[in-house]
Design brief:
By secondary structure, this protein is an alpha/beta fold. It is about 55% helix and about 15% strand. It has a five-stranded parallel β-sheet with strand order 2-3-1-4-5, sandwiched between helices.
């Protein structure tokens, strides 16, 4: 029997990671986000910092640039190795039992392997900018530019490895606006759907 898994894709700054933690806590099941990075690091030997940055973001903003950058003569890259290990770890975690997995294309990886509730958490750019300044502090680059850059790189990575459009409604069962509903309500809704 396939295990029930909630996968959470999210816009940068929308609080998707926090929603994932809260829903897992309410359901009494594990949530894999930073823990996933540690497991991938153990499996791969890559540094956690490298995995955190390259495990769901392309190194370049566009799909085309990602397709040709950092590749050897045969078209292979270290990021491809990371994708394969990340996929293996996500499949193993879903096999072990019900859980919440944040990001890393888990919705796509588990599409035929688990009983998934695929979620997309989003919010307005103003709400997300406010949240990242609150969470991560001020930076030289404007919050809006940081949001757009992270989302663009995340979308490029998702498209490259899944051949699907990140954030497109047909890829998810439910999309929640955390800026309107709030983090607690989003977690409550997802726990109720589990």
């Amino acid at each position: 029997m396939k295990n029930r898994v909630i996968t959470i894709s999210r816009q940068f700054g929308s609080g998707g990671r926090t929603v994932g933690r809260k829903v897992a806590e309410q359901l009494g099941i594990p949530c894999y986000d930073h823990e996933l990075i540690e497991k991938i690091a153990e499996e791969s030997g890559f540094a956690k910092e490298y995995i955190a940055e390259r495990g769901e973001y392309s190194s370049h903003g566009g799909w085309f640039a990602n397709a040709f950058s950092d590749r050897d003569f045969y078209g292979h890259s270290t990021q491809d190795d990371l994708w394969a290990i990340q996929r293996k770890v996500i499949l193993k975690l879903a096999e072990e039992g019900p859980c919440v997995i944040v990001g890393r294309c888990a919705d796509y990886i588990l599409r035929d392997e688990a009983d998934c509730l695929n979620v997309f958490i989003h919010a307005s750019i103003a709400k997300r900018a406010e949240r990242i300044v609150e969470q991560y502090g001020e930076r030289e680059v404007s919050p809006e530019k940081r949001l757009k850059d992270k989302d663009k790189r995340r979308a490029s990575y998702y498209q490259f490895y899944t051949d699907q459009k990140w954030g497109a409604m047909q890829n998810y069962h439910i999309a929640l606006d955390s800026g309107v509903l709030g983090i607690e309500k989003c977690a409550e809704i997802l726990a109720g759907l589990f």
